[in-house]
Amino acid sequence: MRVVMVGTGYVGLVSGACFADFGHDVICVDKDADKVKMLLDGEIPIYEPGLDQLVAENMKAGRLAFTTDLQSSVPDADAVFIAVGTPSRRGDGHADLSYVYAAAEEIAHSLKDYTVIVTKSTVPVGTGSEVEAIIKKAKPDADFDVASNPEFLREGAAISDFKRPDRVVVGAEKERAQEVMRELYRPLFIHETPIVFTNRSTSELIKYAANAFLATKITFINEMADLCEKVGADVQEVARGIGLDGRIGSKFLHAGPGYGGSCFPKDTLALTRTAQQAGAPSRIVEAVVKINDERKKAMAQRVVDACDGSLKGKTVAALGLTFKPNTDDMRDAPSLDIIPALQAEGATIKAFDPAGMEECAELLKGVEFCDGPYDTLKDADVVVIITEWDVFRALDLARIKSLMKSPVMVDLRNIYRPSVMEDSGFKYHSIGR
């Protein structure tokens, strides 16, 4: 099939490359000429394991192309995906849909034969209907349907998530549109992937509900971690004990400094605003948003406490800056709250992240970025593990101890065992243990 992907951000680029790998002919369109040139030159503007090879192979095979010209790309397409950004709108927290609506109008003017317009961006309930109205107004005689096909891609595992998903959700009002979507995802039938067909509004809400539920699980286990610290329990054993219950499950029960990233913060906030506007407020999700914001800000105090109440004149080694491993994404990362708070307490910050330092340098000032974990730890008074990259999981503890001024570690991801750290002579602080 012939596919046009509007937007070459994280969702658009991964989805376009994977559809091409399925055998479809895909054109990815972006207004950013520099980004398109970069992609045509074989450079990938985001960090995602395996994506560079996937893009290169499908470009070489002639199934994947990049352009700034939407007008010439749309007429021959069977499906046009809108995969542009929907950031939180300043002031009220609603999703900013201006890019979605602008894309819809531009697509409308180029429609020729029957085409399915698919919202791949995360959008609030009712967006599909608005997109349909925009297209009808711009081109009343257009032969088209609008469908919703939310993405469920985890950064760092996006290719696997696209090719072997738990499910595919499609919101389409008409059988004709459903048939196009079935054909697009036909390569997944061999894996017996469930495809959930529903109406557009339900599909749009499924995405928000899924992210809000996962954010709630993270926030719940973080609160249990705080309770564990007060009563002498171990949050990791609590998580295992409840996670073995099939009704609960073990995923997203890892205590830490709070969730961040491109999805959970903006999607939980957008859901609360939609629910309030609809007259059915989601008080649980509202509490999750508030608790998570407070938690990220409170993590710096744990470092202060580990240093006997003062960071004045001390050097903090920060390991990990991105919101999670295997991505360069700094959006709403806990480090963006923790590091400025440490600086406000008088600390000097040295930091290392395998992928996020370039972006972080634009967001945080006064940070010394280092070449590796051991370079970061040299002459530090305390080390704080913010992101659980694999490279931090098996550090040479004896070497760390020899490099640091004092062997103090604040492990916000619980990647080390307290008994091992104690035996190694560290003053060790973790979460919920």
What would your notes on this structure say?
This protein is of the alpha/beta class and 433 residues long. It folds into 3 domains: 2-198, Rossmann fold (3-Layer(aba) Sandwich); 208-290, N-(1-d-carboxylethyl)-l-norvaline Dehydrogenase, domain 2 (Orthogonal Bundle); 291-429, 3-Layer(aba) Sandwich (Rossmann fold). 44% of the residues lie in helices and 14% in strands. It has 17 helices and 14 strands. The protein has helices spanning 10-21, 33-40, 51-60, 70-73, 98-110, 127-138, 158-163, 175-184, 200-231, 235-243, 264-277, 283-306, 335-344, 357-363, 373-377, 397-403, 418-423, and strands at 2-6, 25-29, 64-67, 79-82, 115-119, 144-148, 168-172, 195-198, 315-319, 348-352, 367-369, 382-385, 408-411, 427-429. It has an 8-stranded mixed sheet, sandwiched between helices. Helix 8 (175-184) links the parallel strand 7 (168-172) and strand 8. Helix 1 (10-21) crosses helix 3 (51-60) and helix 12 crosses helix 13. It starts with a strand and ends with a strand. The mean pLDDT is 96.
